[in-house]
Each structure stands twice: as C-alpha cells, then as structure tokens.
Specification:
- A five-stranded mixed sheet has the order 1-3-2-4-5.
- It contains seven helices and five strands.
- The chain is an alpha+beta fold.
- A hairpin with a 2-residue loop joins strand 4 (151-154) and strand 5.
- Helix content is 43%, strand content 12%.
- The protein has a single domain (23-161), classed as Glutaredoxin, CATH 3.40.30.
C-alpha cells in the first residue's frame, strides 16, 4: 500500500504585499535583513506607505548577500516561515530591529516577538524548509539585474538613484501620473 504524500502549500514572498490590493503603484524591494541600507530603506518604506495610503502596495523580496552577511539567508527563511502564520510583516520589522542578532537561536526568540506560535519553527529553519522560496527570490533578483541593495522597482521598472524618501516619492508620483486612466475615445456611430 502506497502512502499519499501530503501536499503542503507554502505562501511565498511573491504572494505577500502590504497596502491596498488594487493600488495603482506597486513598490517592490529586493533586500536583506543584515544590510544597514536596507534597514534605513525599511523606515522610508513605512513613511511612503503612510503618505501614499491606498495608492501603493509594497512587496519585499529576499536577496541575502551571504558572502557578506552569513546570517541573512536564515533570517530571510524565518520571514517566509512567519508568513505561513500571517506574520510576515511583524517578523520583517523585528528582523530589521535586531539585524545584529540574527543567529538561528536568536531567530527563534525573534519569532516569539513577532507572535509566531509554530512549535516547529526552529526545526523548519534548521532543515531549510523555506530555503527554496528565498532561492526563488534570489534567482528573480539576478534575472532583474539586481547587483546592489536595496534595489527598488516601481511597477516593474527599476528605480535608479539613492532610495531617499524624496527620490522614491518623486518616482511614485511619476508612476501615479502614468497610471491615471485616459478618457475613453468615443467611437463614431454609423448612420
């Protein structure tokens, strides 16, 4: 008798957004949790979400630079693990707040701060259960030409320049202008 393998559906980073679902502008960031510039960008993104409430939605994609930050991969996996309980953004912010303390044991403690209840959280991290989702983000980042962090995309267009509040706001404003619907052209009626 063959055993049927249970299919486990994992919520991946591609499916996680904050902001209005049908917002006209999508802001996407490729980043990692040990990077100081990404931590600064996280604070800017919070301001942008407040400033453009209802007009933008934000997605964070993982791009751990493991040659520089050895703990960034497991930190990214822990955020994906948190997403399985609907706590991605809570864990995301806790990780940035504790970016100098991201060892595996610390990640277990941070998960409690984020409200994670999964008893297998540490086992899942050690066993790399969510590693493929992070690898998928890395691959997509490479395909999009990401080389430095943080890397932003606005409606799938690469953002160039320093990711300051002013620069990102200007780019969002430009994207909002592009997305405004043009009046429909009336067709001539046949007589």
């Amino acid at each position: 008798m063959a055993f049927k393998k249970e299919d486990i559906i994992i919520i991946g980073p591609k499916e996680i957004f904050v902001g209005k679902k049908d917002a006209p502008v999508t802001l996407m960031e490729f980043g990692e949790y040990e990077n100081e510039d990404c931590a600064k960008a996280n604070e800017i993104v919070k301001q942008l979400l407040e400033e453009y409430e209802g007009k933008i939605r934000f997605q964070f994609r993982h791009f751990p630079l493991t040659l520089i930050h050895q703990r960034s991969l497991k930190a990214s996996e822990s955020a994906v693990a948190a997403a399985q309980e609907g706590k991605f953004w809570e864990m995301h912010n806790v990780l940035f707040g504790n970016r100098r303390s991201l060892g595996t044991t610390s990640l277990k403690l941070h998960s409690k701060d984020a409200g994670i209840r999964n008893k297998k959280f540490l086992d899942d991290l050690v066993n790399g259960v969510y590693g493929w989702q992070v690898q998928d983000d890395l691959k997509e980042g490479h395909n999009r030409g990401v080389k430095e962090l943080p890397a932003f995309f606005i409606n799938d267009v690469p953002f160039t320049g320093k990711p300051t509040f002013t620069n990102l706001s200007n780019a969002i404003e430009a994207a909002l202008k592009k997305t405004k619907k043009k009046p429909a052209v009336r067709q001539k009626q046949r007589a």
